[in-house]
Amino acid sequence: MAAAEPKPSLVGRLFAEHRAALQSFFRRRIRSKADAADLAQEVYVRMLRIRDPGAIRNPVSYLYTVANNLVKENAVLDRRQASGVDIDEMSAQALLGRDRRSMANSMPRSASPGSGSC
Hints:
The protein is an all-alpha fold and 118 residues long. It is built from five helices and no strands.
């Protein structure tokens, strides 16, 4: 069962199986198509930070939840840059905090991004 796999194995398998689909997911949703590969890689980096990947009930669903949050972060950054307002990553994360909290509430306590593991 995938939930019992060690973290590198689980993330490595997800990367191998979903990299192309995840990049397509980003290309359909962001302005700068050239950033799709970087955003896909960021999804995996964030998943590697999870302390207990076995607590994730549906790794593929979680993968796309993280990806969707990155799309939202990217949109906030794009809007801010287009309006000429300087924004740092911490500000973007603060603006999206409610989305992260709602995602955390749907995940087991040990695997939630709000637990400091992501």
